[in-house]
Structures are given as C-alpha cells and as structure tokens.
Specification:
This protein has 9 helices and 9 strands. With about 290 residues, the protein is α/β, with parallel strands linked by helices. One of its GO terms (biological process) is siderophore biosynthetic process.
C-alpha cells in the first residue's frame, strides 16, 4: 500500500451499507464521493464532508461513464469502488411480471456491471491499492420461496465478482463480494422492498405468503449492526484494523448469522455429491 489518501466512490449511499461505509471512510480522513438518485437523499453526507453526485445505476452506460470521469477528475484517482445499489423483489416466480424481473436484474446486476465498466479505465490508471466491492447477500447461497429473483441476482453478483477477480488481478485491483446476513439497514422497510404487483391466493397460502409475513417480523429486528459491519468492510478493503496483515478476500461473509448458512450449504452440497457419486459422474467417453 502507498501513503495516498483513499478515494471512495459509493453507489446507493443514501441508506444502508452505502451510507455507513461512506461515514466510516469519512471518519478516517478518506475522500468520499457518494452517489444516489437525488442529492437531497445524501445531503447529510455532504454536510459531513462527502462530495455528492447524482447517479441512477440503471442509466445508460454513456451517462455512468460521464459520472465516473468527473469523479476521477475530482481527486485525480479513485481507489475504492463500492457497488451497494440493490433491492429485494418479493413474490413467487409465477406472480412476477417480466417487467418486474427485468427491473430487478437491471438494478442489482446490470447496473453493477455498468458502473464497473465505467470506472475500470480510471481504476487501472490509479496508483496504489485499489478495490472493487460488490454487494451480494447470504441469499446467494440458497434460494427460497418468495425471493427467487433476489437470490438469482445475488448469485449473479457473486459469480461475476469471482470472474472479475481473476480478470483484474494482473492490474493489482482486488475484487470482493460482500455477502451480509441480516443487518438492520432499512432494506426490509415496506417502502424499500418491492412486492409483486400481482398476488395469487394459491401462493399466499404457501411458503411465499409465510415469507411475506416473516419479512415484516424481521424488519427492525435483524441482529446485525450496520455501523459495525461497515467498519469491518472498510478495514478489509483498506487492509487495516482487524484486517491488517491480510489480503482482501474473494468474499466477505458478514454477520454472526452468515457463516452458518455458508457452512450448511457446503455440507449439503458435499452430501449431494457423495450420494450421487458413481451415477451422475460416470459419463465420459470410453
């Protein structure tokens, strides 16, 4: 690492992890360029010293490239790109319209990709330690009734991040995917989550309906403290504090509830492979 001051560009900085990562970075004397769909939503960050810009990640790539160019020009470089934009679409697959499907992938996946594309030329030319962090979810480790599209988008974020890590390693850019468990971020507020416009009684009486009720109960009762989580993330991305002496990992499995989910998925997958060994893998040419 060099002694240069880190410069952060953060999407969806109006709330949740985007906001708290910005606050944590500012508290350390770092430069922060915070973005949201409107400046009024991040005026509090501006009052604390952040530069604020308008960015809708669903905008055309050409528009995002203009934002990236201006951000890079501000301080001459960008060291940490944080893709925090995303939302949960709740509903059974059969209930969801193609437009709802497209919109959630547009924000959660394609928006992330376009932001990365726009910033990569600048990140490659920036000096010192650089990172790209994309927000996945513990939901990327297992789908469930009522949040199939959300799980699918977060699986995509994790897979894309793993591939990007290999692509960008030669340039010294570390890529990671942050996979939080349940944190009290406002993510599950009724005005933040998106419910399917169409509901079907057959699903309301099933696990999908149970999920809708469970999300209401979980909202504001999540175990994770987003401020503490943001501090760990900034430590990891800057290889300082609790992460001093460590490299930026491929994934940050964040929260007390998250590791158990990953371990259970790994164990069940190993059991699956063992149970079908000698049947599904005996398929090579003689």
């Amino acid at each position: 690492m060099t002694s240069q001051t880190p410069v952060w560009f953060i999407t969806a900085a109006s709330s949740g992890f985007g906001k708290y990562i910005a606050l944590e970075a500012l508290s350390r004397g770092h430069k922060v360029i915070a973005s949201a769909r409107s400046l009024s939503r991040i005026s509090d960050l501006a009052s604390k010293g952040a530069d604020t810009v308008v960015l809708d990640v669903t905008s055309p790539l050409s528009e995002i490239q203009k934002v990236a160019q201006a951000a890079n020009y501000k301080y001459g470089y960008v060291t940490h790109l944080v893709n925090a934009a995303g939302y949960i679409l709740v509903g059974a697959v059969e209930e969801l319209s193609p437009e709802e499907d497209q919109a959630t992938f547009q924000t959660n996946v394609f928006g992330m990709i376009n932001v990365i594309k726009a910033f990569l030329p600048h990140l490659r030319s920036s000096p010192g330690h650089r990172t790209i962090s994309n927000f996945g979810s513990i939901a990327s480790w297992g789908g469930g009734a009522g949040f199939a599209l959300y799980a699918g988008t977060k699986w995509a974020c994790s897979g894309i991040s793993e591939a990007l890590r290999a692509e960008l390693a030669p340039f010294g850019i570390a890529v990671t995917v942050v996979e939080p468990g349940y944190f009290r971020t406002g993510f599950l507020r009724p005005d933040a989550q998106v419910q399917s416009a169409k509901t079907m009684d057959v699903y309301n009486k099933s696990a999908v309906g149970a999920l809708r009720k469970r999300l209401e109960q979980v909202n504001n009762n999540q175990p994770g403290d987003v401020g503490k989580g943001a501090k760990v993330i900034v430590d990891v991305l800057t290889m300082t504090g609790v992460a001093e002496g460590r490299e930026v990992p491929i994934r940050v499995v964040l929260g007390s509830d998250a590791p158990g989910v990953v371990r259970a998925k790994c164990e069940s997958t190993l059991e699956l492979l063992a149970g079908w060994d000698g049947i599904t893998n005996v398929t090579d040419h003689e």
